[in-house]
Amino acid sequence: MSFLTVLPLVLVMISGPQILSAIFLATSEGWQRNSTAFVLGAALSISLVVAAAFFLGGGAIGQGFSGDTVHFVILVLLLIAMVRTFLKREQSEPPKWMGKLQAATPRFSLRLGFLLLGFFPTDVITSVTVGSYLAAHDSPLTDAIPFVLVTLLLLALPSLAVVALGERAEVALPKIRDWMNTNSWIVSEVVLLLFVAITLNGLLG
Fold it and tell me: What is the pLDDT of residues 22-79, one digit of tens each?
């Protein structure tokens, strides 16, 4: 997979509560262990979902199943989700569990990374897309490594910023976090719009 293909998929993976969680954990007590555990949990779940889609996709393709219908259904659902998100923009709030992140433990962070990146709807669809794409093009599963690594790198950026910038990052990250909390509906719309473009590309390509 080329970098231009990987980057939009990675942005879909980390946008929303995923990057917000990474920022919260980078500004929490014991942030080194929490951030490491979060990225490790994400690495496990992403790898498992991509691998499962790769092997299952190979079997489905062997039976001549066309993905056009699936792409169309996903597109309709995404458009409905965009309208719903816009209509409820004034009611949008961060998930309640985010309030626990300032006092998170490595065990909680590991589980959160695993669940967010492995079971969040847009992340599941994205990882399945990667695995199915590789199977459809007779590419090896190892071609998914850049996708996984770039996703993990972006999730690690908040903690890496703390290491590199110190107090400046500790001041900037809460401001970024608060902006994303206030404008979470905008983040959601951007993610959904990006996914619409990816889906259209698969449908028309």
Answer: 988 988 888 899 999 999 999 999 999 999 988 886 655 444 555 566 567 667 766 7
105: amino acid identity, one letter: T
Q: Is there a contact between 10 and 151 (Cβ–Cβ < 8 Å)?
A: yes
| Alpha carbons 1 and 133: distance in angstroms, whole number | 9
DSSP 1: -
* Residue at token pair 């199915």: 132
CA-to-CA distance for 110 and 134, rounded, in angstroms?
28
